[in-house]
Amino acid sequence: MRSDLRSLEGYHSPQLEVEVRLNTNEAPVGPPTAFVEAYTAAVSEIEWHRYPDREARALREAIAAMHDVEPAQILVANGSNEILQTICLTFAGAGRSVMTFEPTYAMHGQIARTTQCEVVEIDRGEGFVLDPGVLGDALADRKPNVVFLCSPNNPTGTAETLQNVELAVASTSGVVVVDEAYAQFASFSALDVLERRGGAEADVAMLVTRTFSKTWSMAGTRLGYVVGPSWMITEMEKVLLPYHLDSAKQLAGTIALDFQDEMNERVASIIEQRGRVSAALLSLGVEVWPSQSNFILFCTSPTGQTGDEVWQALVDRSVLVRNCSSWPRLSDCLRVTVGSPADNDRFIQALTDVLSAHS
Ligand code: PMP
Fold first, then answer.
1. In angstroms, what is the span from residue 224 Cα to ligand 1's centroid?
2. pTM for the full predicted model
3. 322: domain range?
4. How many structural domains comprise the chain?
5. Is the domain of 315 the same as that of 183?
6. Which residues form the pocket of ligand 1, taking CB atoms under 6 Å from any ligand atom?
7. Do residues 233 and 101 share a domain?
8. In sequence order, which ranges of the chain are alpha helices (DSSP H)?
9. Which residue has the CA at smallest separation from atom 5 of ligand 1?
10. pLDDT in tens, 9-54
């Protein structure tokens, strides 16, 4: 056993049997029925005795067309977590370092550690907004090989700024990764920066990661991708295992992209619901961070109850949210996924009961 792994804990989100599950930022409903029908028909045509298309050409072409970039700028893997791991293996690894701005998605540090990178954690500071001065100084002082930005950031829900992404790119000779797992819910995307810097031929080491798990309602299929300059994609391809992406998954992703209008409608409805849940949270007197994502972070301490108490009382009412209370910098914080209108009603009602029972 590697001694560095022995001290490392796994990353888990406890799953409990509850009626309302708002703890893992999934989409509240599955993909459209027409998608399921088209996918089922396509799967029946698969030549199961053959390996899949190693380069996943059809899927890469479809993703590239959606973003108006070259297929050679796309790499697809089993969830964006596998993309993040591939990035660490290609550009960091033993003897090299990765920088994160905390609090952020815990898997950035976790994947970096399991791939033997040194992790340099920098505090975001006030309101969890990353100050450009802090960003610029950290990059200049610590010179990481890979920098993880997360926009919108999990678990705070706040989006990164154009200024910070450009500053990061200008201030490091390492790779700037912008994790955009929730980008469709936000008004900013770093893809524009990449495009402006030359797209396929970009002279900057910058990568933008995306997932099918959220907007595309496909967390069950594990599909994510990265957009970057083609020369970086070529290097990352060396790290992937042969035929890493099975035939059924390639079809699922390609067919899903035929349903963009439906997905955009779903995003619009989640954004609307997010406004409703945020307003309810504010009226209940908890501290709320402004979210540009499909989840909202809030802190229970202004109400006199701990995050653990509120989390348990919600579970007692069959509502599961993410308990971030024991995470560094997040005492008494809970994160709720924006769900269906009915699930959001249940959450708001349960929280109202919990907080009023205490007052
Ligand atoms: N990045 C962020 C910021 C996330 O929150 C998640 C999922 N929780 C992921 C990446 C991983 O997504 P997946 O592996 O499902 O594509």
1. 9
2. 0.96
3. 3-30+261-358
4. 2
5. no
6. 25, 79-81, 105, 150, 154, 179, 181, 211, 213, 219, 224
7. yes
8. 3-6, 33-43, 57-67, 80-91, 106-114, 132-142, 162-171, 191-196, 230-237, 247-256, 260-283, 307-316, 341-358
9. 154
10. 877 777 889 999 999 999 999 999 999 999 999 999 999 999 999 9
